[in-house]
Backbone:
């Protein structure tokens, strides 16, 4: 069958396909496209490629072929649309930062429902509410040794062997271990600071009948919570000093009440998402304690809000705010997302695991 002009046009529109036959495979072609979309210069890319032993002329031809490919031209158009959305977020962030108190996480007591919704829910601001747990029996009954006496015979699921895995939070399913609560508490109290073991929200302990009495130790809730949904929407946390929940954002709003010990919370605005290298689900590779501006230059200078929550403090996590949480002491805390407001949101998460 004779080819049509359109067939010939389609054949001509694929100049990058010659590159693999010159030693530049599909992975390298994708790499070239990604680096050009990051505005890396062809000269720097050529240096990187030839340093791996690839022939210089084949590399030059591959870079030129990618640049000429209409698929790459289409990617450039989508890059412009992404840049526009990023600039909108950046401009809104500039308005937020006009507030002289922007970098301060406020502390309040006994807010009214209306005022809380207006300033912190719709206003999308993190805040610490003091005194929420004043009438909670948990303040006394959730001390680690008391928990071991009450529930030590029950099994819990914890995260273990985290230290050797830089991606321990993303790989949390691989770190699951089942232990007796008494044994785990003994490890926490005797082992000193560590990020190697942690009983986190993923443990689902509060869905076990044996742990149901814990919920009886929870008293008055913030004014926008639905008490009837507490059992289904709450989580129990216990771990040593040194546990770190790395930078990520949740998919809903929640409260986090500290019962024992203290935690340092660091927040980054959701409007800075384009600068946080959020290539996979709701995680960022940025370590706020040890930033790497050479590897993650876009994150340099992003404002970080910081507050320490101690016993009795309740942190409100507003929608989509990035946060990193570090236990400064042996810590027991309780999180709950049973807001009586809309609290189900969807995100178009990327799933690029090798970037």
Residues:
């Amino acid at each position: 069958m004779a080819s049509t002009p359109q067939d010939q046009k389609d054949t001509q529109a694929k100049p990058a396909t010659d590159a693999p036959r010159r030693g530049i495979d599909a992975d390298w072609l994708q790499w070239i496209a990604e680096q050009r979309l990051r505005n890396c210069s062809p000269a720097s890319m050529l240096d990187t490629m030839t340093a791996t032993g690839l022939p210089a002329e084949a590399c030059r031809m591959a870079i030129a072929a990618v640049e000429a490919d209409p698929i790459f031209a289409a990617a450039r158009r989508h890059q412009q649309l992404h840049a526009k959305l990023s600039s909108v977020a950046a401009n809104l962030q500039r308005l937020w930062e006009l507030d002289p108190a922007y970098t301060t996480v406020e502390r309040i007591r006994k807010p009214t429902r209306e005022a809380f919704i207006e300033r912190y829910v719709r206003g999308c601001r993190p805040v610490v509410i003091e005194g929420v747990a004043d009438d909670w029996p948990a303040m006394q009954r959730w001390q680690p040794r008391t928990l071991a006496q009450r529930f030590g015979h029950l099994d819990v699921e914890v995260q273990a062997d985290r230290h050797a895995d830089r991606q321990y939070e993303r790989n949390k399913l691989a770190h699951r271990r089942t232990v007796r609560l008494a044994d785990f508490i003994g490890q926490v109290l005797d082992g000193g600071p560590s990020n190697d073991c942690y009983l986190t929200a993923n443990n689902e302990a509060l869905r076990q009948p044996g742990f149901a009495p814990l919920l009886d130790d929870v008293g008055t809730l913030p004014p926008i919570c639905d008490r009837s949904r507490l059992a289904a929407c709450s989580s129990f946390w216990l771990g040593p000093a040194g546990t770190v929940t790395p930078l990520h954002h949740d998919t809903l709003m929640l409260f986090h009440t500290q019962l024992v010990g203290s935690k340092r919370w660091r927040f980054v605005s959701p409007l800075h998402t384009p600068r946080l290298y959020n290539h996979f689900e709701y995680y960022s590779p940025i370590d706020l304690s040890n930033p790497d501006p050479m590897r993650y230059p876009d994150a340099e200078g992003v404002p970080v809000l910081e507050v320490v929550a101690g016993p009795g403090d309740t942190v409100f996590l507003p929608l989509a705010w990035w946060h990193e949480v570090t236990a400064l002491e042996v810590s027991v805390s309780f999180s709950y997302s049973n807001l009586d407001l809309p609290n189900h949101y969807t995100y178009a998460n990327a799933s690029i695991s090798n970037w």
